[in-house]
Amino acid sequence: MQPNPTLDQMQVLVAVAETGSFSAAGRKLNRAQSVISYTIANLEAQLGLKLFEREGTREPSLTTEGKAILADAHRMIGVLNDIRARTEGLKQGLEAELVIAVDVTLPAPALTKVLAAFEAEFPSVGLRLNIGTLGIVWDQLMSRSAHVSFGGQPVAVGDELVAVRIGSASMTPVAAPGHPLATYKGRVPLSEVREHIQLVISDVSTMTKGKDFGVFAYRTWRMTDTSTKRELILSGLGWGGLPTWMILDDVAAGRLALLDLEPYPERPYQLRAFYRADSPPGPAASWLIERFKQELPKVCATLPEALQKRA
After folding, report:
1. What is the pTM of this model?
2. Class in CATH terms, 170-268
3. CATH 3.30.460.40 is held by the domain 97-163+271-310
4. Nearest-angstrom CA–CA distance, 130 and 134
């Protein structure tokens, strides 16, 4: 008889591979460790393959055969999530209220245009908008505090989250015109950059806890709010990277100066919409995702040229 592995066995296999142990997989799936071990043993017996090495190691590690079957397991679970999503979409009517989490790096002009069009398209749908930085928007999805979120790429996207690319934007290093980095003649080397206070956004979520992005200075001042970071840069207390769309007026008015830093050029980043695989977006949320795909390229495509003209 041909082996007939079940979806449950595939989900257990994925859980063990992702968590690194039978006990951790049991905690994730809310099952006893003995049940996890028994399920894997039955799967190996059905397939006639050894999926995990157990001898001589503290934790089980995938065999070559196990890695191949794991890829198939991911595909099976993906199909299951697609079926669930399609079923929910067929059953679901228009949302009464939509909760969205938005990273502060999402260009505000695009957000304003999308929400104005949303109000015209769905006047009966209530909206709650949660603004955050870095991992907060993903934490809200994982805790089911938001239906969909918009921001940059998380550190890791597992089977729980679906990511849809909606556009791109960029970060630009700036300082007040009188700051030493702004008056430096020529391109500023890393050795000089390190000597001046860098203002850095810190994440209060667990998604990127303990991780730094684009930090070069020996001394840093940290905050969780981009608007505060901008105000401190304007005051001359330090330098830092800000979303390009946010600094156009300041550069044009001479309140901020663009920095030509050796270690920190203008940095593009991709923007994505995220939602839980087991909670697919309803009609209004799906409309938002598609509308961002339309508006973000229009706004972001003009940023580099506009920035160059205003500098």
Report:
1. 0.64
2. alpha beta
3. no
4. 13
